[in-house]
Design goal:
Layout (H helix, E strand, L loop, with lengths): L2 H32 L3 H27 L1
Helix pairs in contact: 1-2
Length: about 60
């Protein structure tokens, strides 16, 4: 396996892993919101949104291979 093939595999893994994290952040945002922690829920929502933006960069890198 070449280094680029390894990187392609890693990028695919990172995309999947990142998606799982985004889902978890959103779930926790809902949980803490229901506890009345609006500010914390908002921060977790922003973390989810910023993490989702990383997917664009991962995909950009993947398409360069």
């Amino acid at each position: 396996m070449t280094e680029l093939e390894k990187l392609k595999h890693l990028l695919e893994h990172w995309i999947e892993h990142n998606d799982a994290h985004v889902k978890t952040y959103k779930e926790w945002a809902v949980k803490v919101d229901s506890l009345g922690e609006k500010e914390l829920a908002g921060i977790l929502g922003r973390i989810a949104a910023e993490s989702k933006k990383l997917e664009e960069l991962f995909n950009e890198a993947l398409h360069k291979i």
